[in-house]
Amino acid sequence: MPKSGFDPQRHQRRAHRHNPLGGGAKPSSAPTKSQPKSAALDALQEAAGTKSSTSGSAPSRKEIVPLLSNLPAPDNVSSASAPVNLADKVWSLASVSLLLTVHPTQTAAEVKQNRKLLLGHNLVGRLLHALQSHTEVEVRREASGALRNLCVDAGVDVRNEVVNKGGVDAILSVMRWISHALGFVDAADGAAAAGSSTSSLSSMYQVTDPQQSLEAKLSLLAKPLDQMNKKEKRHATKLATLLGKSLESLAGQNNLSSADLEKLASSTGEGASASLTSNGHARAEPFLALDTDTRKGLLETSESLATVVWCLCESGEKPFAKLVSWKWLDPDLYGADVAANELRGEGLASWLASALSLGCRAATILSTTTADGSRSTSSSSAAGTDALAQLSNEELSLLLDLALASGNALCGLTDGGEAEFIDGFLARQTPKPAKKGGRPVQTALTPIANSLEQQPAAASRRLAQIQAAITLLQACVETPQQGIDRFKRFVLSQTTMLGVLAAGTLRNLAAAVDVKSVRPSGGKSHKKTETSPTSSNVFLPSSAVSGSNGAASGISLRRYEESVILPTLAHLLAGVDMVKLAHDIDGKGDLSEAASIDSANKDMDEAALRSRMQMKAEEKAQTLSLALEILAEMAGALDSKHGDDNDDDEWLEDLDAPEAEGEDDVDMEQDMEAVLGNGDDDDDDNVEDLQDDSKDERTAKDDMRDTFAEAVKRSGRMPFEAYAPQLCRIFSAVSDGSGEKSNIELASCLLTLARPFEASFPSLSSTASSSAASSQQSSVLLRGLHSRSLSVLNNLVLRLATLAPPPPSQPASDPKQQRRIAAFRAWIAGSSGAQLSGVFRALFEIARGCASVPAVAVVGDGATAVTTAAGSEAAIASAKSSDPSPDLLRGGDEATDGLQMVETCIGTMWSVSRCFEGRVSVSWGEQGDINVSQPESLNSELIQALMAGYSTASTDGMRVKCLGLLSVIGRCPDVHPELNRAIGSFLIERLEAIPEGSGPVAARGPTSPETLVAVVNGLIDMYADETSSYDSAFRTNDFLGRMRLTLFRCKTLAKQIDRRKQISLRASAEEAIENLQGFIQYRQSLRF
Q1: Which phi and psi angles does 526 have, rounded to 5°?
Q2: What pLDDT does residue 172 have?
Q3: In this predicted model, what pLDDT tens digit does every residue of 33-59 receive, in sequence order?
Q4: Does the reported pTM lie above 0.85?
């Protein structure tokens, strides 16, 4: 599933906020005249500045270890002789954070050495103790920042140490403590206790007189903790958070400082009352009453802890389980009954979604900021009346950073579809597994929602918070990039990334609920369970969706993805200038544009300006990579009727139903027929589902089918756009007449992103040996964009190919299928077919270009075959005649990525050829294209490359794709007989290459079990129709006799597959052998 992967260097670049030498200022934030700093940090800055001026060497062991004396370990707290001064503790924490940060005066190797030394002195335990035992915001800010820097750049072992030493409890406890100040709605809403938590917070301001309200609060805080009831504890906790202290330190106190009294008084004034009654954000923002330093400290701490959660959730099952199972509701505050009903994961999901919502509001306000940092007076009502508008631009930027960290954490937590967190996010009570030897636990299950009103309110709120980021993304992709200042460009980039993260979270949710709703039913198909929803039963508010009717019903998540997220991401990709992005990533972009955007850049030297431009381009590339991952996941489910009982295309066959494991051969054959278009399986399921229905209901359904059939007869046929509207829109070159931008040619955008540049493969450059590590990283980013773009295109065409006409071995007999095939052929004969033909040629050119890269050609894997066809035999021979130079082999990833791109291109070409039933061009030139019906096709560029590519391939995946594309071309109705003979003979030679005997599979010949299955299926599909125009090649060349002689070898190879370790491969091989036997018997029974 889509998720944003870690980039330690990018996070270290953003870790300067915890660097005391950085002064706490973000270079990308709006300019501010002064940056408030604590006395401890000022002293540390002065000392560090003095030290750096006298010595440029890294700190030694004697200088680092004494820092930890101010950070007592948990097991040494009781034996401490004297308490540590607060300023000294902040000093030590800030110094540790600095030692764990890469900056101009400290290399990554030095950071690694410092981390190893600090970890040897129980750094993790010291940081967690400081984080949990102190309620001062300044301490928690520095402790969380150091922990963040440690987890981001460290390995899984260090993160597991954090978990094993109670890090999850410490981190989430502080996050819960912060949630009261930020006003996040907690998990009590999901436990049907929203009324109590809301009323308890509102009751603090029921007294209209400020003096009376202040006296009531002072009286509450003067009461001992053990004498408070649950409601009073909730009030006191809110007040303690308002003051930035713990409840234990405030309860029973009568001598509050003047600053604390001023905070309490200001929170009861007109400003607080206004914030509590304005536009729904009211009660949830007590942190607005805090001073600026405290607010910044809370926001920085929140962002750091959210990043740590992101790190931990991707570190294994144990950290993930602890994050999800942690109890957010304190029984002393909410009651034992409410705490017992808390859903696992709901509290964390609410916190992260609320943080993401705060960032969306901050981005909306920041979008009205002018170049000089002031707010536009003509700002929209939403931004102007928002309570957050009173914050400075720096604080709003911190909120946006917090939202980005929370979005990354949500993507990581929803990735993989873990049921507990998904159920908690959707506020659903599901059946609990029974304990071993015990009875099943009886729980009140949440009914499946058929509208927004039936969905739990907590789930709707969280989904709406994420939807807000998608709405901002829609605005971002429609905003022109020209003529905007540096600060707006920064806000636009950050908001775009936030929207893409939100789209990834919704994609993970949709995939998780769809997978969970389908289980093996013991038969030949998967059936939807009665207690699990699908993406069609998860609803978002429909007010933001154009053309939606009725906000009460909302819009299903599945339709929201197709109607909003898909076109929005397509617009995002369409707006990318790939040439400029590649040059910027490579550090060779135009500096004049960067200087014109911001006058401050004119005084910057060229190296620094290029570095900044390169960093921004890398961040943009990472955003695009995540968007491509989302599209790749969505592509496989487009235009399917999975789980949607209200679809207009409900009558369509389920052509992509997943195959169950462990089925017998008969069931597997029937499933394969269903995948290739036979609707019998779906009809059988309908009959089973209607067995318990009344006769009148069955008659009504039959009448509906007859009515539809009559409609088809009257209109002649249904257009293919009615079968697959989304796929048609993607591959259509002409708009559907609606005038909407959603009809963008996504396929063309993907091809533009997929074409590599010289910077994508450093081995192409003669100066590559002198390139720095940053250049290598840039090439990795570019190749990642190319590879992901090809994956999206592959999934889209593969989904389209499932609707294409089946091979001759699976003739269509069902009337519905025949109508759909006729509609498909009519659709592909138009302009859409011309676009797909262009896609086919572009894919071959991309594969040929990747194969010509020296690092790829040296390794081989079939890429050499494509290059040879292009006329680069000399280059390949020269590369292979001598030992590979270190320059060619230095990028093992470069060779791997290039080979993967070649393989993906050939696989996508295989799917395109299935759509055309083999009618594709096999060579292109100035004199015209050569198609498969011409005699020149035998020696064409593509055919020779595929045959040679099979011989030089080192992976079974590459071999199977070459064979699949050849077999589809060979069974084209218009194929030239000589080309069919050459392809057929080539496939049979693969069977003849299987060695005789029963040796181990490791010692087999060039034909593997995977290629055996591909060859057998290809031969049967080509020669299943004895009336075809090319069947004479099968008869005159004695293909039947040659195939019969290889039957025993095929059986021997299939038996060598371990049925326990390779279950599906063994089943596929046995099915192929059985089909081969039947095919031979059938052809022998014919008289010619």
Answers
A1: -95, 140
A2: 93
A3: 333 333 333 443 444 444 444 344 555
A4: no
CA separation, residue 1042 to residues 312, 1028, 1037, 1048 (Å): 59, 20, 9, 12
> What stretch of H or E contains 922?
strand 921-923
Query: Tokens 């381009």 map to which residue?
Result: 617
**DSSP 3-state of 568:** helix
Q: Is the dihedral of CA 568, 572, 573, 575 positive or negative?
A: positive
For domain 922-1087, the CATH class is mainly alpha
pLDDT one-digit tens code per residue, 633-684: 999 888 876 444 333 333 333 333 344 344 444 443 443 343 334 444 444 4
H or E element that contains 79 = none
Alpha helix ranges (H) inside 916-1046: 941-952, 956-970, 977-992, 1009-1023, 1031-1036, 1039-1045
Q: Per-domain residue ranges for the chain? A: 60-189+290-315, 332-371+390-430+450-516+536-541+554-575, 631-640+714-762+775-862+892-917, 922-1087
DSSP helix/strand/coil, 1004:
coil
Strand 555-556 and strand 518-520: the pairing is: unpaired
Q: Which tokens hold the place of 504?
A: 């990834």
Beta-bridged to residue 931, according to DSSP, are: 921
State the architecture of 60-189+290-315 in CATH terms. Alpha Horseshoe (1.25)
Interior CA angle at 312 toward 310 and 313, to 5°? Answer: 70
Q: How far, in Å, CA of 432 to CA of 444, rounded?
A: 10
Q: Which two tokens stand for residue 780?
A: 């990795």
Residues 143, 145, 148, 152: is their CA dihedral positive or negative? negative
Question: Do 323 and 169 form a contact (C-beta atoms < 8 A)?
Answer: no
pLDDT band at 453 (very low <50, low <70, confident <90, very high): confident
Identify the band that residue 211 occupies on the pLDDT scale cut at 50, 70 and 90: low
- Comparing CA positions, the residue from 70, 68, 66 lying closest to residue 84 is 70
pLDDT grade for 261, boundaries at 50, 70 and 90? confident
Report DSSP letters for 781-810, one per residue. Answer: HHHHHHHHHHHHHHHHHHHHHTTSPPPTTS
Compute the CA torsion angle 971, 974, 980, 984 (nearest 10 deg): 10
> Closest Cα to residue 353, out of 556, 557, 186, 490?
186
- pLDDT tens-digit series, residues 271-296: 333 333 333 343 447 788 888 899 99
Distance CA 474, CA 479 (A): 9
Give the contacts of 464 (CB within 8 A, at least 6 positions apart): 540, 541
Cβ-count burial 760-796 (b if 16+ within 10 Å, e if not): bbbbbbeebeebeebbeebbbbbbbbbbbbbbbbbbb
> Cβ(357)–Cβ(470) under 8 Å?
no
What is the chain's length? 1088
